[in-house]
Amino acid sequence: MEEIKVFCPATIANVSCGFDVLGLALDSVGDEMVVRKIPEKEIRITKIIGQDLPLETEKNVSGVAGLALLEKSDYEGGFEIEIDKRIKPGSGIGSSAASSAGAVWAMNELLGRPFSKLELVQFAMEGEKLASDVAHADNVAPAIYGGFTLVRSYAPLDIVPIPTPDELFATVIHPQIEIKTSDSRKILKTTISLEKGIKQWGNLGGLVAGLFQNDYDLIGRSLEDHIVEPIRSILIPAFDDIKTNAMDAGALGCGISGSGPSIFALSQGENTAQNVAKSMEETYQTIGVPFDIHISKVNIHGVKKLG
């Protein structure tokens, strides 16, 4: 193969109780990317449509992630990248992660898969470092592995795939404002109380157990964030109203997607997810905030080849 076209999924990171360690991939929204081999040992970004992003390799997350892979590869050539950017930067659903993960996954396919998924996550994390100053994996891991993933450890990097119940759907509303991940991280406290930590660890364990056991009630009880949401939610218009109305519409739980401003809800069944979407729409229509909304099954494959 000399060229490949791929779908690069949007992702929900943190999933309420798993700050920087938990994430899931979406199926209905993502970027598309074409990657092809070139004889020169370099990464070239030749076209970006959909968003105004830099073509310079060192200033683009896909370029930086690709350079990290190329540095570890025996391949004597390089790659050319075209991006159809459908995830808006600063949306809170893994825009930079989609570009980073898609680039390295596609390159690995063209080279005959010399690198493991864990290694691809490490390369993609370099793109995340460029975007947010922190090489976090909670978005790129599910983008590459698919489904839910847990980052058990960063040093050494240890990714644990988690099974996804068949009837689990996500609803995501994206208010048309931008919150940069780097700015959103700056407002967080660097210490927490033991009491809050215990609550958070219990919820994270409960959510992982609920996913393994297909226990939707346990999943719902565990979707609580005692540490990050109380701080970041003040940046998001009508967050409390969105959450209350989503729960009234039948959502299992509702929280901030990544660093925001997107808000996600998880539901059992597509009909409930549609009802949750309607409640979110009505809330923002009332206060006059423009938005995008997505309803999606959890994407269990991650980045995938198109065509």
Short description:
The protein is of the alpha+beta class and 307 residues long.
Q: Can you give a write-up of this model?
A:
This protein is α+β, with helices and mostly antiparallel strands. Helix content is 37%, strand content 27%. It is built from ten helices and eleven strands. The protein has helices at 61-72, 95-110, 117-132, 140-145, 181-186, 194-213, 216-222, 229-232, 239-248, 270-287, and strands at 3-13, 22-38, 43-49, 78-84, 148-154, 157-162, 168-175, 253-256, 263-268, 291-297, 304-305. Strands 1, 2, 3, 4, 5, 6 and 11 form a seven-stranded mixed sheet that branches. Strands 8-9-7-10 form a four-stranded antiparallel sheet, sandwiched between helices. It is globular. The two termini are 13 Å apart.
What descriptive keywords fit this protein?
307 residues, alpha+beta, 7-stranded mixed beta sheet, 4-stranded antiparallel beta sheet, 11 strands
Q: How far is the first residue's CA from the last residue's CA? A: 13 Å
Radius of gyration: 19 Å
The shape is globular
Give a short account of the largest sheet: 7 strands, mixed
Q: Number of helical runs?
A: 10
| Helical percentage | 25-40%
Mean pLDDT: 95
Q: What structural class is derived from the secondary structure elements?
A: alpha+beta
Q: Which spans have pLDDT < 50 for at least 5 consecutive residues?
A: none
β-strand amount: 25-35%
Order of helices and strands: EEEHEHHHEEEHHHHHEEHEE
